[in-house]
Amino acid sequence: MSRLLILAAAAFAVLGVVAQIAMPQDEGAGLLHVSIAAEPLFELGPLTVTNSMVGALLASAILLFAAWVFLRRPELVPNRVQSLIEWPVEWVAAIVEGSTSRWKGYVALVIGLFLMILVANWIGLFPGVGTIGIIEHHEGEELLVPFVRAAGADLNFTLGLAIISFVVFVWWGIRINGVRGYLLELVGEPRYMAPLMFPIHTISEISRLVSLSMRLFGNVFAGEVLIGTMLALTTAAVFVLPLAFFVPAIFLGLELLFGAVQALVFALLTMTYITMAIAEHEDGHGEEHEPNGSAQPTDNHQPATA
Question: Smallest Cα–Cα separation from 11: which of 146, 151, 122?
Answer without folding.
Answer: 122
